[in-house]
Design goal:
Arc Repressor Mutant, subunit A; two-stranded antiparallel ribbon; single chain
C-alpha cells in the first residue's frame, strides 16, 4: 500500500490562526475504513459486551457457550454478533476439539486505540500515558 499524506487542520493557540499539519499515514497505522468498520461493529450493546468479555478472558479466549451463559444471549444471536466482530477483525476463532475458541485480536484493538488517540492535544505535550491506550496482552 502506498503511503499517503493528509493535511489536518489545527488551531495555533498563540496566533489563534487555523493552520495545517501534514500527517503521514503509513502501513503501521489502521486505515480509516478499518477504524469505521471496527467502531461500527462495537456500536451495538450486545456486541460491545461480547467484545469486553473476550478482553477480560485474555489470550485464553472463551467458547460461545461460556459467552452465552455469562451474557444471557441466545446462541443464534451470539453467533451473529461473533461473526460481525470477526468481520471487523476485532476477534478471531480457533477450533479446539469440538469447541470454537474466540479471542480478541489485541494488536487490532491496540491499533484502534492508537488511531483514536494519535493526535491527542494537537501534538502538544502528551495528555495520555501510552500505557493507558495499549493492552499488554
Amino acid at each position: 500500500m502506498k503511503p499517503r499524506f493528509t493535511r489536518l487542520p489545527v488551531l495555533d493557540a498563540e496566533s489563534r490562526c487555523l493552520g495545517f499539519v501534514i500527517y503521514f499515514d503509513d502501513n503501521r497505522n489502521m486505515e480509516e475504513k478499518d477504524v469505521v468498520k471496527a467502531l461500527a461493529a462495537m456500536a451495538q450493546p450486545n456486541r460491545l459486551q461480547v467484545f469486553r468479555s473476550l478482553v477480560v478472558a485474555g489470550k485464553q479466549g472463551a467458547t460461545p457457550g461460556q459467552l452465552g451463559e455469562l451474557l444471557g444471549v441466545p446462541n443464534a444471536t451470539l453467533s451473529f454478533h461473533l461473526k460481525e466482530l470477526m468481520g471487523a477483525g476485532l476477534i478471531s476463532q480457533e477450533r479446539s476439539g469440538r469447541n470454537m475458541i474466540y479471542r480478541v485480536e489485541f494488536d487490532q484493538m491496540n491499533g484502534l486505540l492508537a488511531y483514536l488517540t494519535e493526535n491527542c492535544c494537537q501534538g502538544a505535550e502528551a495528555c495520555l500515558d501510552a500505557s493507558s491506550t495499549n493492552c499488554q496482552c
